[in-house]
Amino acid sequence: MLFPVDMQLHKVTRRFDITFDNGASYSFPIEFLRVFSPSAEVTGHTPDQAKLQVGKRDVEVEQIEPIGNYALRFVFSDGHDSGLYSWDYLAEIGENQEALWEAYLKELAEKGASRDPNDPANEPFKEKPKAQCPSKQH
Fold first, then answer.
1. Which of 2, 8, 85, 104 is a good FRET partner for 110, with 20 to 30 A between their CA atoms?
2. Domains, the chain, ranges and CATH?
3. pLDDT of residue 128
4. What is the largest CA-CA distance in the chain?
């Protein structure tokens, strides 16, 4: 199992760098980490349930929480915080970063969506607010 020997969050350039004990080193744009969150909210429980992430260009990391000795949880400025980024997952997406990003940009273009958080074309892809239960009145 891989283990990180160095990690740095760069707030100004919005990047997260990680170096592992095997010498592998990756630099991730924060938008990339948000788009490729391993949470069920993003990936779904099956591949056909995956949700296209739109409008994430300006997202930032507000907090990073260690999860035991095996993962990190990123708290993003858009409120997303449910993905656990294991060391193995970070290495996997680091190794495949270019291909993953190209496929993501292609899917955005094919569906007419955008990285721009203010693009009206993104509306059909955004999460709808959950219905609230009316409070019981006594």
1. 85
2. 4-125 (3.30.2020.30)
3. 62
4. 64
The torsion angles phi and psi of 77, rounded to 5 degrees, stand at: -65, -15
Q: Nearest-CA neighbor of 39 among 50, 30, 28, 48?
A: 50
Side-chain-facing half-sphere of 71: CA atoms under 13 Å: 12
Closest residue by Cα to residue 53 from 31, 72, 27: 31
Q: How far apart are CA 120 and CA 43, in angstroms?
A: 23
pTM of the model: 0.89
Asked whether 85 and 18 are in contact (CB, 8 A), the reply is no
